[in-house]
Design brief:
This protein has a four-stranded parallel sheet with strand order 2-1-3-4, with helices on one face. The longest helix has 12 residues, at 47-58. It is built from three helices and four strands, in the order E-H-E-E-H-E-H. The chain is globular, with a radius of gyration of 12 Å. The two termini are 21 Å apart. The protein is 31% helix and 13% strand. With 85 residues, the chain is an alpha/beta fold.
């Protein structure tokens, strides 16, 4: 899992197991994203993660997807204890 939010957003809440690579840093850190296994990209609402997933697939990471609705949707539908902002 790759979180493309900004560090301040991650401090509010998210997935502790996710690697933090802010979207603005992603192009320079593609090598940190595995190419040989599924990767889910997350952000606040799913827009940045969708953009990031498309970029990563274009960089040879075909098993990359975006968490639809982001951590906001996850908090609303799956984990209501997750902090929202």
């Amino acid at each position: 899992m790759v979180d493309v939010r900004e560090p301040w957003e991650v401090l509010i809440g998210g997935f502790p197991e996710a690697a933090l690579i802010p979207l603005g840093d992603l192009a320079g850190r593609v090598a940190e994203v595995p190419a040989d296994r599924p990767v889910v990209v997350v952000c606040h609402t799913g827009l940045r993660s969708l953009r990031a997933a498309r970029f990563l697939r274009g960089q040879g990471r075909p098993l990359t997807s975006s968490l639809r609705g982001g951590v906001e949707a996850w908090a609303l539908r799956i984990d209501p204890a997750m902090p929202r902002y």
